[in-house]
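Quiz preparation item.
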């Protein structure tokens, strides 16, 4: 369980980082503002999920 939990935490945080850098890259190259907004919404949602995953793992570990 600990290895799977660690992997799940890493995956959720990694997803947030990927979307964050995608939004940053879109902003740097002067991309679509609509895409920037969509990426920001995804990032906020993924951060929420990552926090829930971290809390669940900490709770399960006692």
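Solution:
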């Amino acid at each position: 369980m600990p290895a799977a939990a660690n992997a799940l935490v890493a995956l959720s945080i990694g997803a947030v980082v990927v979307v964050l850098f995608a939004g940053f890259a879109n902003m740097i190259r002067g991309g679509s503002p609509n895409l920037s907004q969509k990426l920001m919404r995804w990032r906020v949602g993924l951060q929420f999920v990552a926090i829930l995953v971290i809390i669940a793992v900490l709770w399960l570990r006692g």
